[in-house]
Amino acid sequence: MAKEIPDLVVEARAGTGKGAARQARREGKVPGIVYGDGKDPQPIQVEFNSLLTKLRAGRFLSTLWNLKVEGQEDVRVVCRSVQRDVVKDLPTHIDFMRLHRNTRVNLFIHVNFENHEEAPGLKRGGTLVVVRPEVELMVTASEIPDHITVDLTGKQIGDTIHINDIELPKGVKPTIDRNFVIANIAAPSGLRSEDNAEAAEGEATEA
After folding, report:
1. Using CB atoms within 10 A of its CB, is residue 34 exposed (0-12), middle (13-18) or buried (19+)?
2. What are phi and psi of 165, to 5 degrees?
3. pLDDT tens digits for range 119-149
4. What secondary structure letter does DSSP report for 74?
5. What is the pLDDT of residues 141-156, one digit of tens each?
6. Which string of b and e fits 56-91 if b means at least 16 CB within 10 Å?
């Protein structure tokens, strides 16, 4: 279940400061910095189109990347900040943080829902209402799960699924202490209308 670590190819950037950053942008690159792990910050630049494609694919900030710089050892990083142009909403600067294999880090992990066909509530026409498609978890850099799984087997209309109902991988824990809601099985509109009608009829009979 460990997540495959994708490569992110960047270039070392010789200069620092606003002038060097502007030069990188003129060349179709996005300037950035890699910091952390007790080492000196390293200026880098990323191909603009490549970065934009990855950003638009989603989950960029929740992904552990294998950062590749020519002539240097690969390093594992997570993105900590993407600055954008306030008008065009396009990336203008990016920050990465280096990680050890044993570093603990907070990342948003995707939630998968399985066994829809085994949920009586869904068979009756109920709707799976996903409250949190991703959950922020504290994970170890070397063991980042690709997703966490919710088993819908036996779930009825009205059932609510909380984080404590999910078996998390070893060493993984939520960043929030409370038992928050992940999803619920909502009644179909027709069934809700019937229930409301029955309730109203019952009240009329009692009156």
Report:
1. buried
2. -80, -10
3. 999 999 999 999 999 999 998 877 888 889 9
4. -
5. 778 888 899 999 999 9
6. eeeebebbbbebebeeeeebbbbbeebeeeeeeeeb
